[in-house]
Specification:
With about 450 residues, this protein is an alpha/beta fold. It contains 13 helices and 18 strands. The protein starts with 18 loop residues before the first strand and ends in a 14-residue tail after the last helix.
Length: about 450
């Protein structure tokens, strides 16, 4: 359904209570606090080029820059704390956008660039919320890499600000823009699998250092790199070469969300939508390699129990990282006696199993591509198809349809993933009270719901 510019933002079902933050610059953070709107939001004209600013230009930042540049949007401003990456990004777009201005501090960029339409945030996880919320309060639409934010509080605040400002948002789980992903959603929405009881998600992550301790000492900070700006909201710590920057930050609690934060917003997205998943009931890390004080374990198995609007019983989601997977007995049961590598995501229903792009119905012994399986090949197309995830965001900023990973999808999905990340740090089954936005049985886990915020970097 196409939404008008006035009707774009949907209302939220609830808000979060104030959350105490040990060691934070302020005594408490309130996700539901009133939003100070600095600039009225506007939508670009249909057919126009978006005037865009980019916060972060390496890694996913560089990939996002390529996507929007190739779509023909106007690159107005580039920001990165690493001058080498910043220069490379400017060179990349110089053929068509030679006047793109360069910034080291995104706060300067937002203060000085008065005619942007949208901002792309591709920083390490810990800076997503601060940058995106500041941009939204200035009336700017935001494309934010996954996970949307690093903590539950930030997700609630992100939703509140987006609603108040009436902006378009899109989380960067870009598989949502593919025909295959949308077909998987249609298959689940059709009910052909019957009631779904369990889902198994595997990944080869982490592919970065974690399960390590902080190294001692400090190294000289390169002239081309601003360590203070890179730290942002995070607590101060000494700079160590090749420990955090470039892409070695994801496994550190202060900066990233580990393997689950990296992949689950991709892998869980289609079934979260297809099964209309709603509220987390509980979360528990049921297996783990040794834990460390500042980084995620090398491998874990996490169990999430989540309610569904489509069925009476909750769904059990099993997450495996560190190149692990279900035990052999479980794997054999899931494949109806045919032992094979599960890989990716396996959705288990009463009538059949969906695994990747293949399907095996009850009583069958072989997985068949859903395009060829008689149970699914004739299912109607019910969801719109788009050029890609980035194009969908750009068109929404021009007044088009709501993006697939707007706050109604990105926030609850991200929150579930982040609760899983907390369970990787806190032992035992954690019971979640969705109405209160808190764990009912763990003060230790509740202390991790909100971020540390360094003075001068307060989140709006």
């Amino acid at each position: 359904m196409l939404l008008t510019r006035r009707s774009f933002i949907e209302t939220s079902a609830g808000t979060a209570a104030a959350l105490a933050v040990p060691g934070c610059a302020t005594a408490a953070l309130d996700a539901a606090a009133p939003v100070e709107i600095l600039t009225k939001t506007h939508f670009a004209k249909p057919g126009s080029k978006l005037r865009m600013g980019f916060i972060g230009s390496g890694g996913r930042g560089g990939a996002n820059l390529n996507e929007f540049f190739n779509l023909g949007e106007e690159i107005v401003a580039l920001c990165d704390v690493d001058a080498t990456r910043l220069d490379a990004a400017a060179k990349k777009v110089a053929s068509r956008c030679p006047k793109a201005r360069r910034y080291r501090d995104w706060r300067d960029m937002l203060d000085k660039e008065k005619d942007l339409d949208a901002v792309v945030v591709s920083t390490p996880d810990h800076m997503h919320a601060a940058a995106a919320i500041a941009a939204m309060k200035r009336g700017l639409h935001v494309y934010v890499e996954k996970p949307l934010v690093r903590t539950f509080f930030e997700a609630e605040r992100f939703r509140k600000v987006a609603e108040a400002c009436g902006v378009v948002t899109q989380m960067g789980n870009n598989g949502n823009g593919t025909d295959g992903q949308r077909r998987n959603i249609e298959i689940l929405q059709s009910g052909v699998l019957g009631e779904v009881s369990e889902i198994h998600v595997t990944t080869d992550r982490p592919i970065w250092p974690q399960a390590i301790n902080r190294p001692e000492g400090s190294d000289t900070i390169p002239d081309t790199f601003d360590w203070n700006l890179w730290l942002g909201v995070a607590p101060k710590r000494p700079f160590k070469k090749n420990v955090y920057h470039a892409f070695k930050w994801r496994g550190w609690f202060d900066f990233g969300t580990g393997a689950m934060g990296d992949i689950a917003c991709h892998a869980m997205s289609f079934f979260w939508r297809g099964l209309a998943l709603e509220r987390v009931v509980s979360v528990e890390t049921i297996q783990s390699t040794p834990k460390f004080s500042e980084t995620y374990p090398a491998a874990t198995t996490v169990k999430l129990v989540v309610t569904s609007a489509r069925q009476k019983k909750p769904v059990e989601i099993y997450w495996y990282d560190g190149k692990t997977g279900p035990a052999e007995a479980t794997a054999r049961r899931l494949t109806d006696g045919v032992m094979s590598s599960l890989g990716g995501t396996t959705v288990v229903g009463a009538n059949g199993i969906l695994r990747g792009g293949t399907l095996m119905m009850k009583g069958e012994r072989k997985f068949i591509r859903w395009q060829d399986h008689p149970a699914t090949r004739e299912l109607p197309v019910t969801l719109p198809r788009v050029k890609n995830h980035h194009w969908e965001f750009a068109e929404a900023v021009r007044g088009g349809a709501k993006p697939f990973s707007h706050i109604d999808h990105s926030v609850p999905l991200t929150e579930a993933v982040l609760l899983g990340c907390i369970s990787q740090r806190v032992a035992g089954k954690l019971d979640w009270d969705a109405a209160k936005g808190r764990f009912s049985n763990s003060d230790e886990a509740n202390a991790l719901l909100a971020p540390y915020v360094r003075p001068g970097w307060e989140i709006g």
